[in-house]
Structures are given as structure tokens and as C-alpha cells.
Model the fold of this input.
Amino acid sequence: MQGEPVRLGVVGLGFMGQTHATNASELGHEVVAGADIVPDIRENFETKFGARTYEEFETMYENEDLDAVAVSTPNAFHEDAVVAALGHGYDVLCEKPLADSLEAAERMAETAREADGFCMVNFHNRVSTAAELFKGYQDAGHFGDVRHIRANYIRSRGIPGVGSWFTNEELSGGGVVVDIGVHAIDFALYLMDFPPVETVFGVTRNQFGNRDDYVDPDDWYDATEEAVFDVEDSTTALIRCADDRTISLEAAWATNEAESQEFVVRGSEAGARLDLGGDELTMLEAKSHGPDHLVESTVSDASIDHVGWKGSDKRFLDAVVAGQSPEFNTIEQALTTQRVMDAIYRSSESGGCVEVGEKR
Done:
């Protein structure tokens, strides 16, 4: 189908489903159909995109002539929608995390290995000016041997609406680790070129989600009598990779600390500082031109087209048009990230360091 617009189906028509549909339309592709169990959401999607909608994604797969599918359901339903789409030969963009459990993620990856189509996972924060700058300098050898990354994704107060699926472990598979921690883990591994991960020590906490006196200046939190909050709201972890490379992780929906999405990279020749999804790269170096001295320089006058969600959607749709599996945001990389998340939970439960890859 080289050169032709992609015929896209969307599973899960909430905010992210509509985001994928909007981006596809703006990029010149055709939103053919959507599936969601909620009638009002289907009706809204039909009106907004002029697409046919279905209650069940299986019916959409059977009835529609699609090239690709974007899956943006709650995490617990990723596996069924993705596996069925791959079974039909479609290329698939799956929302992060890959699944609600390591077992489900492994089954999805196994299916993708045998499928005609490919599965890409929507880690959209990789598509930023800061990340592209870092990778350019890294490929040129500027940082030397990267040995450690300090990864932060911290909200002072930002627990998603209680009563939504984000705070219900049955639907999400976890709390802050699988919602925003997953971005920090993936991005750190990406900056380190995805070395093999060996062991993890992690702690998860629930300090704010069930408090009656929770303070919420930006109105993220909407507690009701039916609300479920049975997940963690912060985590700290140390991830040890091959050759003694390490990642230290701090992720929080709520904590008494300033907000941060800062990543600090330590290399043998230079270091770097950049924000997740940011547009500036700061490099930190020691020089001996004249007296020994330290140099801190910031690149801030560069930009790339189509960052974030739209940039990720474009890379997916371009790969569909080209008929080639992308080497970016691959399902195997997402599986590695899923294994790290699983290890954080196992470590927190056991109180000790755990090997990555074992079943929870």
C-alpha cells in the first residue's frame, strides 16, 4: 500500500483514541471505524470523524477493510484487542504499557513475532527535540560510555481521577508505575540503547490516594463513594543492567516535592540533562583548554516536526505505508520495560532485589 492513505480502525474511543484519530486525519489518512462499549462515546466518535462504530472490536475487524489499528483501551484489555488485530494481519499501535501483566505482555510479543503485521507501542515522549538532539550527539560518540541515568517523573499533586480505571488495579495492572513510571523507565532505557536488564530493587508506596484530607489544587482527583484506589502513588527503584550500568528511578503521582521530568545522563566523555518530552538539551563537560574547567552548554535553537503523540502516530503510520516494521518503539522494547515494572512490584513485595524476567 505504499503511498496510499492508511485505513485506520480505533479500539477504545476515549481521549487517546480520539487523539490517534485526529492525528491520523490531520496527517492525511482515513479513520474508517472505531469500537467502544459505551454508546455515547461511539456516537460522539461517529459525529466527529464520520466513521462507523461498533460495540465489539471483533465485529469491526470482521466487517471493515482496515490497514491498521490503534488500541487505546484500559490496560487490561490491550491483549485481546492487539492479538486479534495481529491475527487479521493488521499493523497495530498499542498504548503504553504493553499490558496489565507480564504474562499478557509476553503472549502479545509472541503473537507479534509470528504475525504478518507489526505492533508498535506508543511511548510518545521519545519523539521530542531534546531526545533527537541527545541521540544525534550520542551517535557521534560525544558522551562516550553512558553508565548511569537518573530518571524522574514527579508530580506534586496529580493523581488521576479516582473512580477512573487508572486507580483500579483490576483494570490498570498498577498505579504510578504503569501510568507515568513506564514512560520514565522506557525513556531511560532508550537513552542507554536498551542494555540487557539484570536486577531491580524497588519500593512502591500509597501515601496520598486514600487520604480524606488530600489537597488537590488542579482538580485531578474526583473521589466518589464508588471510587476504587488500590494502587501505588509513588515508587523508587534502582535498575541494574549489564556491565554495571544503572538507572535510578523516582516516579510519583503525588508527593511533597517539586515537580520534575528531568533526566540526567552520566557518560565517560560528557553528561547531559534533558526533560522528558522537552525541547532543550544541556551538556556537561570537563575541559582542559587553558586552565582545567567545567562547561555547561544548552542547545535551545533546534526543533523537529511532529513531536509527542502526533510524532509517534506519524512514525507508526509512515511504517504502515512503507510496509516495514519500525525499529522505533518496538514491542520487544516494550516487553523489556514491562519486565522492569513487574520486577519493581515483586521487589517491593519481597523487600529485596529481584532478577528481571521471572514471573511475578
